Amino acid sequence: MQFGPREIVTPFRPIPLDVPEGMAPNEFFNSTENLNDLANNNGLLKNPEHLLLYRKALGHSNEFDTSIIFNTSECILDPLGRPVRRTQVPEVTKQVWNRMNQIIIEFMVEQYPDPDKHLLLAGEASLDATWSLTSPGVPSIRMLHNHFICFDKQQLRDAKFADIKNPNLTDGGQHSLFQAYMRDVYREFFELLNFDILKPTSRGSSKIELTGYPQGLPSWKIQGGVEALKDIQFWKEYDQILMGFLDFYRTFFTQVSTRNAPRPKNAYFPDIIDSKLLFNNDFMSAAKMVRDNCIKDAKYANSIRWQPAFKQLIYRNDDGDLIVTISQNSIGNAITELLGVVVKRAPDAEAYEAAEPALIEKLLEVRKRLIKADLGQGIETPFWPAD
């Protein structure tokens, strides 16, 4: 069998959604009007912490695909003022979110126990692009949301190979700025973080053999598997990875912007920044290279995402271990592409409706478990009752 990234076709039922004249679709998707439609037609569960579980109408997979969004559309009207990463949400909201994540991931592992048959992932991407709302790659809903997805590996085996030059695949690590010029210092920075549950993976053990991805990214095995997700210590360590990434990203692009700038304010790990980044020649020379390019090339400078842009996820590898990884998100590619899965969505109501009953059955079952754990109330839609 040949190995490489795959492109699958996922049918969807066209959504009868009218975008007002003169308004770009991704501008409308950030509106309260659109979020009301999402909740009323696709909403599964909501809670007082403003977390909304919903069916992905334009999904990545019709096997299992759902998301939780921190729906601040009515309490924060400015799309640029909404929380867009875990470190920005209230502590009580994050605790509820962690418990919801734990239950959904546990359900996925229980429902799909064989890593040879199914690829599982759960994760989120930063949504605070520094480009205008109408630029390519800018998220369609600028609010923090995460994904829970299952792919049938037989479908992946049967799928055609994706174009390895597809720009959305270049962020898997092998072409990214951090990996190309600062691989050693990037890894050394993360090695200085203290973990009890997370353990750095050995070379190659985190890859999905079928696709060959992720490539070149730091990754950690969750010792204890799905049971470890019930331990609040795991979620603290999961947040530490994000905080470390944010420190690295901010420090680097601060140096790109201003030569010999001090470390960013409110850094999470100031001592590590001072000793391992600002005193590292490879780190500083890479910043100089990017700065010089920005000065000479307007198009290159305009492509820089000056604020932290990332994808962080939990996925199951071929050995059945749960793995955590994080990637720079410089292009705006889908979170699935971090694992070498390119999804081409195709309007096909008949094909979608054939898969819909089994998909909805699983979504309603996981909703039942969330309600039992006092994590929200069911939502009634034209497609399912409230309980």
Produce the secondary structure layout.
Layout: E1 6-12, H1 25-28, H2 32-42, E2 43-46, E3 51-55, E4 64-70, H3 91-111, E5 118-125, E6 145-152, H4 153-158, E7 160-161, H5 177-191, E8 198-200, E9 219-222, H6 232-257, H7 270-277, H8 281-296, H9 298-303, E10 310-316, E11 322-328, E12 341-347, H10 349-372, E13 377-378
Describe the overall structure.
By secondary structure, the protein is α+β, with helices and mostly antiparallel strands. It has a domain of 268 residues. Helix content is 35%, strand content 18%. It is built from 10 helices and 13 strands. The strands form 2 sheets. Strands 8-9-11-10-5-6-4-3-2-13 form a 10-stranded antiparallel sheet. A hairpin with a 5-residue loop joins β10 and β11. α6 packs across α8. The longest helix is centred in the middle third of the chain and has 26 residues.
Strand residue content = 15-25%
Number of helices: 10
Structural class: alpha+beta
Spatial ordering of strands, largest sheet: 8-9-11-10-5-6-4-3-2-13
Low-pLDDT parts are none
Provide the helix percentage: 25-40%
How do the helices and strands follow one another from N- to C-terminus?
EHHEEEHEEHEHEEHHHHEEEHE
Kindly report the average pLDDT value: 90
Question: What oligomeric state is this?
Answer: single chain
Count of β-strands: 13
Sketch the major β-sheet: 10 strands, antiparallel
What integer value in Å does the Rg equal? Answer: 21 Å
First-last Cα distance: 46 Å
The outline comes out as globular
